[in-house]
Amino acid sequence: MKINEKSIEKNPTELLKKLDKLHPSDIAHSLKKIKKSNPDDFIFVLKNLPEDVLGDVILELPEKLREYAYNELTIEKLTDAVDELESDDQTDILQEIEELNVDKAKEIFDGLEVDDQEEINWLKRYEAGEAGAYMQTELFSANLNETISNSIEKLRIAKEEKELENIHQVYIVDDNKILVASILLEDLIIFDYKKTYKEIIEEHGEKRFKPYKVNDDELIKDVAKQFEKYDLSVVAVVGYQNMLIGRITSDDILDVIEDSATEQMYQLAGVHDDFEHDSFIFTAKKRAMWLFINLGTAILASMVIGFFDQTIQAFVALAVLMPIVASMGGNAGTQTLAVMVRRMALGEIDFENSKDAIMKEILVSLLNGILFAFVVGIITYFWFNTVLLGLVIALSMIINLFSAGFFGATIPLFLKKYNIDPAVGSTVLLTTVTDIVGFFSFLMLAKLILL
């Protein structure tokens, strides 16, 4: 449904009247607009959201606004909202509140049902990067010896009581809760409801119903790769001796992928993802650190230029052409760097199997170097009417684009080998290399050929 943002900002009650027609993410988007114009209206809308919507809306808000909401909403309101959520989301919210106010988090936790408390305590055992931290314990499972009709009746009751959401299949377990098979609901409806799952599996073969599963201590980034590779909507999570303990759905994996991609993009630029809600002074301080590092590398490049001051004085045209060499090298290196960091993040290459990827990037950069060497050489000749000057910048262009491809491909690999995030340090190092190599090669060739 299309929302009139300006109308809602002026009269937030309009948003409350349209809740039935809006998704929680749309409500959260409108709340961000309201918060910017009037924080009091933001809290007013939050306090008047129904409990079955409030929790989902809070989860869609940015981190800073979630913290603001936790501080402003009452314990009773938050308890009711958390109670409506699935176990993984309950755990996420409680852990966030715990970081702000331990006592408040404890009171909310104490207000939940015993079953919910046990599930939350179970999920809190996992580290942030483990699959278990992202799973929900609510799922549709049936015993191997259970009839389909009996399990379908259990599912109907669970759906009526709103205990289960987004059910795609039934997980089949034995008497020890060991995961045996997984049957899609669209397949389940064509079978004889009087038969047991054991009979169905024996009749059609175990291979047809082989479940997709991950271990609870597996890294979530590896789980995300499986979702992408096999186009999964949900995956079972197993623990000790293959016991079924939960599931991870695609909405959680999409958040993981989006967060990872966003983090890499910001790190390559030397910024962080909270800039929208941080004060301008705090944001300026964070960015200043990287600007100081860039200043240091720029001084190094300037020192290289200083070594050839007499050459530049003899040929003023060199000063005009230097930015072209540095800019082309920097852009070519950034292209290579972006490709390599992305492929490393997807797990397509690592330090051991990177030879082909490096060779490809070098050859691409070298080919572009030759192409643009010819183009810029011709332009320089007609611009300054000097053949040798065109030759100098052409040779420098080849050298710099070659180095841009080589170092753009190898720098992130070496950083990763020594456990340094390639997305954080690669850009500064690459800029330093392309500037120094570009200026040095251009001015040294000019000194050797023109003087």
TrEMBL record:
SUPFAM superfamilies, per database record: CBS-domain pair, MgtE membrane domain-like, MgtE N-terminal domain-like
Segments crossing the lipid bilayer: 288-308, 314-341, 362-384, 390-415, 427-450
Highest taxon listed in the record's lineage: Bacteria
Topological type in the membrane: Multi-pass membrane protein
Domain (CBS) ranges: 135-199, 206-263
CDD domains found in the cross-reference section: CBS_pair_Mg_transporter
Keywords assigned by UniProt, alphabetized: CBS domain, Cell membrane, Magnesium, Membrane, Metal-binding, Transmembrane, Transmembrane helix, Transport
GO cellular component annotations of the record: plasma membrane
PROSITE patterns: CBS
Annotated compartments: Cell membrane; Membrane
Gene Ontology molecular function terms on file: magnesium ion transmembrane transporter activity; metal ion binding
Record note on quaternary structure: Homodimer.
Family: Belongs to the SLC41A transporter family.
Purpose: Acts as a magnesium transporter.
NCBIfam families reported for this sequence: mgtE
Protein name, UniProt field: Magnesium transporter MgtE
Source organism (scientific name): Arcobacter nitrofigilis (strain ATCC 33309 / DSM 7299 / CCUG 15893 / LMG 7604 / NCTC 12251 / CI) (Campylobacter nitrofigilis)
